[in-house]
Amino acid sequence: MFALRLFCLYSMFFFAPVRVFADEPITINESDERITISTGDLEASIRKVGYVTGVERQSFLDKKTGFRDLGYGLDIVDWIMEPGSDEEYRDQLPQEMVYLTGNSYHGKGQKRSIEGPQICTQARVLKPTVINGLDFVAIKQSFRYRTAAPGKKHGSTWTQLLVFPKGKRYFISMDKIDAVNDSDAMFLRVDMPGHINHSEGDSFSEIYLSYEGTIPSKEFLVDFAPDERFNYRRDRRQELPERIIRAYHLRDPKSGNDGPWLAGMTLDPEIVSEAWCHQRGYVCLIEEFGEKPIKAGESFSAAFIVGYFDSIEEMNSVYDEHKGHTALEVTSAGWRLK
Q1: Rounded-to-integer distance, Cα 331 and Cα 130, Å
Q2: How far apart are CA 147 and CA 100, in angstroms?
Q3: Could you tell me the pTM of the whole model?
Q4: Could you tell me where the beta strands, DSSP code E, fall in 192-310?
Q5: How confident is the prediction for the chain on average, in pLDDT?
Q6: Within 10 A of 115 (CB to CB), how many other CB atoms are there?
Q7: Which of 15, 227, 250, 288 could form a Cys-Cys staple with 107, CB 3.0–4.6 A?
Q8: Whether the Cβ atoms of residue 178 and residue 73 lie closer than 8 Å to each other
Q9: Domain ranges of the chain
Q10: How far is CA 266 from the centre of its chain?
Q11: 158 strand-pairing partners
Q12: For residue 295, pLDDT beyond 60
């Protein structure tokens, strides 16, 4: 009898029934402040006011495990930039466009903002629209940059698409710039997937960078500049990596138990010019894409998959299924990467 009770307890602990969400309908709730999307697998909010772009901080819920993202939002968008210093005309720039280097936040690399403001903190208000499909829901939002460096125009347009497919624990996104300026090396800065808040590594156990490997959380207990460690630069590589996947392994701070991975995948490795992974009070996962010549009237974009995965092998498999794309198209009839 004792053995039977022990077996039953063992079975309850290790084989507890898991609720199946996949057949639940997609629901959308909209208020003056945000749009909240709930699928059978995920929940996510997109803010209309305040700190905008991408998916709102800690709103990205994995219904399978109950874990949420750890940072300030996912696929968050900043300035249009290019290499070079703004020192000569810094006194003519709005304060939020000044880019200081030689510090622990930005490192030594010389960069400058072409157009601003930083959308996430300064746009203040966006007007996202909902696209309803048969087995997905999508969000489209855009912004015209309204400040520019001396000698540059303002008015380039950023467009973001976010697609939440039914039956998936991830969303597909695109950030695109339609440029009004010429540049020898224009790029867009985003958070991909998003930053990691933690206290001495309590909320995540490790980070996976497909071009670097796995890195334990203990490596992020002390601040260091982005170009000191774990920095990816396209122009320093003889060969491009097979994949650009940046992920963190979630951990319950109370129990210490690992949860799923939260990954951000850039589907064309060639488009990524630089990717940071450094500690600055939190783990900063900035990514820059483009940094190639562009003429006014042209555009450039990157496509991503952001979501929850149970293993690195699963991430690799999903990546390889969608690899090579830089753009995303969405109508009510369907969506496609291209």
Answers
A1: 10
A2: 18
A3: 0.92
A4: 204-209, 213-216, 232-233, 244-251, 258-266, 272-275, 278-279, 283-284, 286-294, 299-309
A5: 93
A6: 25
A7: 227
A8: no
A9: 79-118+144-159+167-337
A10: 9
A11: 143, 177
A12: yes
